[in-house]
Amino acid sequence: MLHIDILTVLPDLLKGPFDHSILKRAQQKKLVEVEIHNIRDYTTDKHHSTDDYQFGGGAGMVMMIEPIDNCLKHLKSKRTYDEIIYMTPDGERLNQQISNQLSMKGNIAILCGHYKGVDERVRQHFITREISVGDYVLSGGELPAAVVVDSIVRLIPGVIGDETSALFDSFQDNLLAPPVYTRPENYTGWKVPEVLLSGHFKNIEEWRHNEAMERTKNRRPDLLKE
Fold it and tell me: How far apart are CA 11 and CA 39, in angstroms?
């Protein structure tokens, strides 16, 4: 079973994404366990401070190393981590290949950044991987952490009803997914392509591949170069 620990100063922000749909069912099936840890619980001052002004001056507060270290020490006393991930805009950009790799791990910890970021010593001494969900800045790492967890968990065998479904998602083979259709076959004159109704598996697969190639060529030609 995959175990994921998330370290954050805003635990309530993360409760919603894990209480619904696929992520909820995966936890109920004991295929994944997600625990959310409030970094404020690991502070040593009465105000439960987790941030302070940055040395050298400048705008924005910085998350302190001590409460993060305390939290990680507590967690490491219970399990050994394959990856300790820091969500940050300057990390490697999340893609399907990274999600595939992480889905095969046993224990993962994810640190959610906040304020101006974390003390650089956290990144130097504790973090094994830094991940970004895009070239933009959010208020904190909680939403990106939820994105990463969702992208990982859906790949675990048994999480999705039809396990082959995830294998044909966009980006699995560096192609965007082809168009999909369902009932009715004809809606106000807009018809489903005949090949999908033919029952001819080889022709359907060929059509899907060609459509995926064309869609990728038009929308994400950079993927074909890769």
Answer: 9
Residue 170 has pLDDT above 60, yes or no: no
Going by their DSSP bridges, the two strands 32-38 and 51-53 should be labelled as unpaired
> What values do phi and psi take at 210, rounded to 5?
-65, -40
Report yes or no on 165 lying in a domain: no
| Range from 17-26, 169-178, 208-217 carrying the lowest mean pLDDT | 169-178
Residue 161 has pLDDT above 90, yes or no: no
DSSP E strand stretches across the chain: 2-8, 32-38, 51-53, 61-63, 83-93, 107-112, 129-132, 186-187, 190-191
**Number of domains the chain contains:** 2
Instruction: Name the pTM for this structure.
Output: 0.88
Domain boundary pick from 153, 183, 208: 153
Which SS3 state, helix, strand or coil, does residue 53 take? strand
Q: Which domain holds residue 126?
A: 2-153
Question: Could you tell me which of 66, 72, 68, 51 has the C-alpha nearest to residue 116?
Answer: 51
- Same-domain check for residues 114 and 66: yes
